[in-house]
Amino acid sequence: MKEFNAFPEHFMWGGATAANQIEGGSDEGGKGLSASDVYLFDPNTPKEHWSDQWFMMTHAQVKEAQDPQSKRFYPKRFGIDFYHRYEEDIALFAEMGFKCFRMSLAWTRIFPNGDELEPNEEGLAFYDRVFDCLIKHNITPIVSLSHYEMPLHLITEYEGWIDRRVVDFYLRFATTVFKRYRTKVKYWMTFNEINCVKHHPYVSVGIIEEGYEHLEQGKYQGAHHQFVASALATKACHKIIPGSQVGCMISYQMLYPYSCHPDDVQACLEQQRVSLFFSDVQATGRYPAYADRLFKEKGVVLKKEVGDDEILAQYPVDFVSFSYYMSSTVSAHPENLEGAQGNLITGGIKNPYLPSSDWGWQIDPKGLRLALNQLYERYHKPLFIAENGLGTGDTVNPDGSIDDDYRIDYLRQHIEQMKEAIADGVDLFGYTWWGPIDIISASTNQITKRYGFIHVDQDDCGQGTRNRSRKKSFFWYKKVIASNGSDLA
Question: Name one Pfam family in it (predicted).
């Protein structure tokens, strides 16, 4: 008899990365510059300002990054050299027993500027080799089409996703890779954390905020074009790859009212809608009823083309995926309350009942169970946890080992709550730990904010051997996968 809260027999265990944080090789194989390739790391900048660029990119920074003579350090152009070491890294994933690997394609490897008529064969061939290596090791690729890797040319010359023409450029890219990898990839995601446009519009939809007159209009117009592009990509994928599955992906925090005061409860509801708006559109195929008021209050008037609403209705996504790192609390009157500084998505109020990571992210495993139930009851579609992880510092022992019990504890507690959600009736088909190998942080552009089961000998300035080694968590996760989540000791 099956255990009541056991994982499904073919549950997809694995890890997740993004091309811009792992690959490197930015000047090889015909690759162009992406939105993420302009992010700097400067150790002389105070730590509290390391993520400033993530939220506010300037025209001067973008222009300087395009200068081939610039001496500044752009970490995401180097990553951890997966471009040359993918066989070694995938072999380590296979040693852990990965069933799947969630990765992204660098749009700029295939269409360096984004608006070319023909793809770059060298880029296509690189991903052929990566997929062939994964398949050799019986690891299923789950591929994000766009994970903060928009071609920089589309930002500087077209103003990003605000320009309707970018929908066609994206579809050319999507159709190209669907046809090329139709026998190798069945699972796709259209946009990574599509709802994050609300707090970092530059890397999400290509808006350089500096001097931008109506930012909310730009955010939601860009998002609308992404919704249409996602629906059309879903249509194309189903036609080109029979049996394929296409998902949306949002960044999700479980939000709690700070108190039982009705004002706090209402503020929490409204804040959750700001995130769920994006998956509401992609999963249900229509704009939610509350959108009219949301747009009115923000002064947004969407420009739609004839047939857009019908496209959204006809081609919703097949599954809903999300990242989950933390929860937050919301108050209608936060002025005299302590903020949760590390909660990048909502800001929010510090929850006095929860511990925090070294980077101020409040750790809440039970919030994952709540989030899974909430999303499943809302959409009635299969769920996939595309990201979950703990970014923290690691200490290398004299013998080279790393005793990261804190990472094991974090993962154990979240897996336990995943089991509870499955027992609740949630259809959860997979889980990929964010950063199974140490990678460049999305927000702070450093590597010493480490997530991996695999250590990379590299510092924040890109120095080191880049040699890989197994942490204690490597062996623990291997045991978890081998037992299909039953052995968490």
Answer: Glyco_hydro_1
